[in-house]
C-alpha cells in the first residue's frame, strides 16, 4: 500500500495551478468571464478572477485523466466546481461578516450585500449550466453528474447549518465535528472526483471509489486547515491564526483536548473560546495547551487515517502520472507543510 | 385564433391548485418535506409549506399532459419549479427587507439572515436534484431540462440586478422594463413550460413553442401584478397597494405615463416616487393620474399583446382539456379580475 510518509513536492498546489490542466482551466475561465463583462457578470468575474489555488478544477481534470478520459472534454464541468466553491465563499463571507478575501474586499463589501447574494446564486446556476456543457461525455453521465453536484450542494448547506450549531459548543464531540467536516468540505471534493470520473468515462464502481477518495481527502483538508495555525506560529498561513478562536469555533484539536481534559483545563478552554479575542501571549498559551495534551498529535493521526482511506480509493486505477498527482495531494493534505 | 375576451372562470388559480394535478403535487410536497423534518429541512419546509397558489408546478404538469406525456412522471420536476421560485422569494425578502409573506414572518425574520441565505441555496440545489429524479423521461430530456433550468435561474439573477438599477429611474423607458419583466418573471414560466414539454416527451419545435408561451405569459403576469393595485382600490389584493411606490419602483404604467407626460406631470410623478410613502389621498391622486393619462389602458393593451403571443405558442397542440386550461391562464393574466 502507498504510504503517506514520503516527501511532499514543494509548492505542490502552485505547481498544479501552473500545469497544462491549470492552463486549460485559466484559459476557459477568462473566456467565460472576460474583462468586458458588465453588470452581474462583472461582479461574478470579480468573485472568480484571479482564481485561487484552483485545486478543485485541477483535481477534476486529473481524475478524468486517471480513468482514461480526455481532460479537455471535462474543462467546463471542472470549472463548475470552482463556481460552486466561490458561490459558497461569497455567501459565507456575508454570513461571517468577513471583509477581506485573498487580499481584496469581499464581494459584499465591494458591491453590496444584495448584489453578493444574487452573485452567489448566479454562480450556483452557472455551475449547473457548465456541467450540461460537457455533452461530449453523453447525456447519462451529464444527468448523473448533475445529481452528484446537487447532492454535494445540499450537503454544503447542511454543513453550514451544523457549523453554526457547533459555535461555542465544546461538548459537541469529535463525531459531530467530523460529520460537519464531511458535509462542509468533504462533499465538494467528493463531487469533484465523482464528476471527474463520470465525465471521464469511468464505470460506476470506479467512480464510487473515486468519490470516496474525494470525500476522505476533503475531511483531511478540513483538519489540516484547523491544524495549520498551531504548526508554525511564526510562519505565514492563509488565515489569521486566531480566526477560529475569535469566531468561537471549536476546531478538531480543541474538541479533542476538551474530551481528554480535567475540569480545570476544560474551564480554561471554555474561557479562551468565550473571550472572542486573543492577543499573542494568550494564543501561545492556548497553542501550548493543545500540544501538551496531545490533542494536536491526535488530530494529525486522524487526518492520517482519512488520508490512508483516501489512498485506498485509488487502488483500482492503472498507475499513471495522474494517479501520482492524486496521491501527492493526499500527502500534502496530511502534513502541515506549506 | 383564440380570442382573449372570453370570460375567466372565477377563482381559476384556486381551482387549479385543487385539481388532480394539484393534489398529486401537494402529496409529493408533503412527502418531500414532512412535518418531522429537522434542522435545515425544517426551515425549508417553513418556506415551502403551506404552498401558495402552486401555479408553476400545476402548469408544468398541464403542459406535460398537453403534449401527451404522463403527468405523474413529471411531478418531482414540477415541484422543482416551486423550489426555485421559493428560493428566489427567500433571498428577495432579505434583499427587500420584507418581514411578512403569505401572512407569516419571512424566513429571515423567523430563523435569521444566515439561515435564510443557506435555505435559499438549499432550495436551489433541491430543484436541480428534483429534475434528475424525473428519470422516466430519459437522460437526454433530463440533461436538457437542467440546461433550461440553469439558464432560467441565471436570467432571474440578471432580472434582479436590472430591477435594482430601475429603482427611482423614471427615464429607464418601457423597453428596459419589459426586459426586466422577461428576465425576472418570464424566465421561470419559460422554464416551467419548456421543462414540462421536454419531460412530457415533446419534440424540440413544440417544446420551443411552449417555452415561448411561458415567457410571454410570464411578462403578462408581471404587468398584471403592476396593474392590479390600480384596478380596484377598495378590493383585496395580495400586496399592499402602495408597495411599489414605497420601494421607488417605477412599474410599467408609471413608465408609460412618464413617457407621455408634460414637464409638470413628470415632476409630479418623480415627487410621488421619491417620497417613499403614500397615504390614501396621495395614492388615489397618483392612481387617477395614471388612469387619466391613459397609461393604465395602454398597459392593459401591452399585457393583451403578450397574451395574444402566448396563445400562439399553443397553436401546434391537439385540442384538449389541458390546452383549455393553458388558454384560460392567459385570459386570467390579461385581466385584473381576482
Automatic annotation (TrEMBL), chains A, B:
Keywords noted in UniProt: Magnesium, Metal-binding, Transferase
Cofactor list: Mg(2+)
Pfam families: polyprenyl_synt (PF00348)
Keyword Ribosomal protein: no
PANTHER family to which the protein is assigned, alphabetical: GERANYLGERANYL PYROPHOSPHATE SYNTHASE, SHORT CHAIN ISOPRENYL DIPHOSPHATE SYNTHASE
Family, as annotated: Belongs to the FPP/GGPP synthase family.
Name of the protein described by the UniProt record: Polyprenyl synthetase family protein
Species of provenance: Jatrophihabitans lederbergiae
Amino acid at each position: 500500500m502507498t504510504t503517506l510518509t514520503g516527501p511532499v513536492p514543494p509548492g505542490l498546489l502552485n505547481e498544479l495551478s501552473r500545469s497544462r490542466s491549470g492552463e486549460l482551466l485559466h484559459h476557459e475561465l477568462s473566456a467565460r468571464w472576460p474583462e468586458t463583462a458588465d453588470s452581474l457578470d462583472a461582479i461574478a468575474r470579480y468573485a472568480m478572477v484571479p482564481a485561487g489555488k484552483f485545486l478543485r478544477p485541477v483535481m477534476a481534470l486529473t481524475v478524468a485523466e486517471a480513468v482514461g478520459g480526455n481532460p479537455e472534454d471535462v474543462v467546463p464541468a471542472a470549472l463548475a466546481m470552482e463556481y460552486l466553491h466561490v458561490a459558497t465563499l461569497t455567501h459565507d463571507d456575508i454570513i461571517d461578516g468577513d471583509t477581506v478575501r485573498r487580499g481584496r474586499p469581499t464581494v459584499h463589501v465591494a458591491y453590496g450585500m444584495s448584489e453578493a447574494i444574487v452573485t452567489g446564486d448566479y454562480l450556483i446556476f452557472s455551475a449547473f449550466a457548465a456541467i450540461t456543457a460537457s455533452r461530449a461525455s453523453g447525456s447519462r453521465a451529464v444527468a448523473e453528474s448533475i445529481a452528484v453536484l446537487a447532492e454535494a450542494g445540499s450537503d454544503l448547506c447542511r454543513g453550514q447549518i451544523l457549523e453554526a450549531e457547533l459555535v461555542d459548543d465544546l461538548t459537541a464531540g469529535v463525531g459531530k465535528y467530523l460529520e460537519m467536516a464531511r458535509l462542509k468540505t468533504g462533499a465538494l471534493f467528493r463531487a469533484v472526483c465523482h464528476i471527474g470520473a463520470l465525465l471521464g468515462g469511468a464505470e460506476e464502481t470506479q467512480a464510487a471509489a473515486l468519490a470516496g477518495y474525494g470525500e476522505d481527502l476533503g475531511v483531511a483538508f478540513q483538519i489540516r486547515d484547523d491544524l495549520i495555525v498551531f504548526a508554525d506560529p511564526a510562519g505565514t498561513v492563509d488565515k489569521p491564526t486566531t480566526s477560529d478562536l475569535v469566531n468561537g469555533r471549536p476546531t478538531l484539536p480543541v474538541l479533542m483536548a476538551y474530551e481528554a481534559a480535567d475540569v480545570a483545563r476544560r474551564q480554561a478552554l471554555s474561557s479562551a473560546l468565550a473571550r472572542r479575542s486573543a492577543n499573542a501571549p494568550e494564543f501561545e498559551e492556548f497553542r501550548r495547551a493543545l500540544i501538551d495534551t496531545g490533542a494536536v498529535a491526535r488530530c494529525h493521526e486522524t487526518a492520517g487515517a482519512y488520508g490512508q482511506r483516501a489512498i485506498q480509493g485509488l487502488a483500482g486505477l492503472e498507475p499513471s502520472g495522474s494517479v501520482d498527482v492524486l496521491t501527492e495531494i493526499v500527502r500534502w493534505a496530511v502534513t502541515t507543510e506549506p
